[in-house]
Amino acid sequence: MNLPRAWIALAAILILTTAVFGAPADYPPLLRGAITAALLLAGVAAAWFAGVRVVTDADPQRRLAAAAAALLVAPFVLFALVPGAGPPRVQPVCDNELRFLLLAIDAMLVGAGLLVLKELLADTRGRLMAALGGAAATIACPLYVLFSLIQRTDYVAEELGWSWAASVTGTLRELTPFDALSTTALFFGGTLTWLAIILFARALASAGWLESRAAVLLQAIGALGLAFLVARGLAYPGLQAAFSHWVTIPGFVAGIPAVPWMPPCVIGVLLLRRLSAGDAAARVSAPARPAARSATT
Questions:
Q1: For the segment 113-126, what is each residue's pLDDT rounded down to a tens digit?
Q2: CB within 10 Å: which end of the chain, N or C, has fewer?
Q3: Domain layout of the chain by residue ranges
Q4: Within 10 Å of residue 15's Cβ, how many Cβ atoms?
Q5: What are the backbone angles phi and psi of residue 223, rounded to the nearest 5°?
């Protein structure tokens, strides 16, 4: 029986992990731990066999590609740490503290992955686009981290019963100036990430790391995400306001913190696919060992 290719298994596990993370559920502690362990082990193993193991290769280009891919898929593997998280409004305060801490870590991983990708493309025809994409990623990463840590501190304040920033009326959990800063940081972090996706997809296609059709699709997704987010504007609408009309839904979705990280994750999986294809081609082209001579000759 032929087993599915490792990169396909990785893609399926990442989709499953994201679905388990996004669907709100109150799992019992033992089941929650079992789901976390199973998804983490499956994600790490699938990524390793899909091509991350190439980080030990002698070819520096392949090592850079494997490192970039590992960093870009890692945020969605780590979503296994918070199964059943769902939207922030439906979860306890302690779970939201972990959520936003995890988002801050994930933002650093995505930023690091895009910078390693820039290094991979430094000596290729896509160097200019990669440099511009790296600049966008360099600015976007701290903005995401700022948003995540401000939001986490809000939930810490709620849990401890104190307000860490002055609000208009003094009511706890009312929007503060720092909350307004965090939503503005999220907006610019998202727009710069969508822009980086467009630039890196073009650079990877120019360097031959991505097929032209995949690159065009990623550029189209990046352009749509950027357009929807800019059309939405700086304000982050509530769920009821966002879903009040179909026109406002795309901008709301494009601004969800983890959504702009999905195309870079796809890039990571496609890089692993390319690396595994190279390994398969090398095995096919390797000369066969000569048969041992028999003792009678």
A1: 999 999 999 999 99
A2: N
A3: 6-275
A4: 11
A5: -65, -40
